[in-house]
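User: Some background: our group keeps a shared notebook of sequences we're curious about, and every so often someone picks one and asks for a predicted structure to add to the entry. Today it's my turn. The entry only has the sequence so far, pasted here. Could you supply the structure so I can complete it?
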Amino acid sequence: MTQQQRHDAIIALVKHQGYASIEQLTRDFGVTPQTIRRDLNALAGEGLIRRVHGGAGLESSTVNTAYHTRKTLNVEAKRRIAEHLAAQIPNHASLFINIGTSNELVAEALQQHAGLEVITNNLNVAATLQHKDDFNVIVAGGQVRSRDGGIIGEATIDFINQFKVDVGIIGISGIDEDGSLLEFDYQEVRVAQAIIQNSRQVFLIADHSKFHRNAVVRQGRITQIDALFTDREPPEAIRRLLDSHDVALHIAPMAPEA
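Assistant: Of course. Here's the predicted structure to add to the notebook entry:
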């Protein structure tokens, strides 16, 4: 069993039981307690489990990880995915870009493009793109969340519904094995649903940690998107859904070795 296979198996076990002890994991996987501790620390560092005394439990499905913490999680992978996604966007396209740390990296990666029109409910995206003279950046109205600069609410939905764009770029907090796209904030979900409905194509950006993560609000289904951009092969159940619904899968290439 490879380290990645062991990590996936640990996550599955913790999700099934709600808690797993170091003693149990050591016995089940036939490795040392030191190896299991390293595994749990790595998985907790990616936000996939919650490290507790003597073992591991589930991350909360009702409270998201703090924004400043999320900005540091899997940042190298997120940047590679963002650059890969940006390469699929033609110049002079119209875009929605919604809330999320991965979407903010997409905005950074789009700065070499020309003539984009970007409608966003993310103040950080707008701040990144505002210096581009040939971009038209439009910020949605609504309630600004102090914790991350996201804009949400009924006014935001009404604003989004005035547009029909080439590509909607959305992030997500978690992807269930049945294909449900999961989020923590009901108001954020409603804005994302409006973006999906008003985009000719929908691109979902999600690093590998999202495939094992729970959240309480269902935003939609992975079969509603046109392309998934990630950094690792998805779980088999997700891959089957993508294949059966003609959803394109883009796995960002690894960075070249220095």
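Suggested note for the entry: Residues 174 and 213 are 5 Å apart (CA to CA). The first strand starts at residue 19 and ends at 21.
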